[in-house]
Amino acid sequence: MSDDESTMRSVHLVRTGAQQYRAENPRGGVISFGEGQDTDFTPVELLLVALGGCNAITIEALTKRAEPKRFDVAVEGQKRKDADGGSQLEDLIVTIDIAFDHDEEGKAMADRVPDAIEKSHHRLCTVSRTVERPSPVRIVQVRNSEV
């Protein structure tokens, strides 16, 4: 693995109110989220954004020789209780709606879309691959933390 392929990715979350948080990335990006009590995204919605966004960005990179006239992505899944009483998302669907001009370059890129979707989903999109091949998650508590 190259250094770029094995680098750590991280975000920092700060509580801003009851069940409300701000996520910050190392580049200074900020997004607010919460439990769904207002217009902020919920964590589940952010997971759906990540799934759709990763695939969209990857597909776009593979079809970048022509500017799409339309590029819409919809992501949905069913939140269900499992046998242990916990909840999880099932039946995740990412719908890609991409259209190019009907000129020669646009037709060539439209022909590449099915292959781009296949490559994105099965090889290049980190989010899809992580969701499909789950990675263990460890939750670590900082003990005796003082303010």
TrEMBL record:
Signal peptide: none annotated. SUPFAM superfamilies: OsmC-like. InterPro entries: KH_dom-like_a/b, OsmC/Ohr_fam, OsmC/Ohrsf. It comes from the Bacteria. This is Osmotically inducible protein C. It comes from Aeromicrobium flavum. The lineage of its organism: Bacteria, Bacillati, Actinomycetota, Actinomycetes, Propionibacteriales.
